[in-house]
């Protein structure tokens, strides 16, 4: 699997880091983790899970029958945990570098010009 991971893939793996989940649970958790920015459709989710399984990053943990329908629970494999850990560390370092540069810039000069009153007049 190529890194950096796309955000939906990263969030699916992150959701599964807590433990096995079924599809609908993953959809809800990904929406929560993304603070509502990302809402996976079932076709997108299951396509991603199939690719992740083909890459050896997730596997089916168990299948339960609920209301006569099979409900698959997925879990991370050791490889999935390793990839998620590595990607999280890569992202942490990137955020640390950006934060450091932003803090350095903020110390050198403000990001925005100071506010000055509008002396041109008019109705506000």
UniProtKB/TrEMBL annotation:
InterPro entries: ArsR-like_HTH, Metal_resp_DNA-bind_regulator, Tscrpt_reg_PadR_N, WH-like_DNA-bd_sf, WH_DNA-bd_sf. SUPFAM superfamilies: Winged helix' DNA-binding domain (SSF46785). It holds the Pfam family PadR. The lineage of its organism: Bacteria, Bacillati, Actinomycetota, Actinomycetes, Micromonosporales. This is PadR family transcriptional regulator. Residues 12-84 form the Transcription regulator PadR N-terminal domain. It comes from the Bacteria.
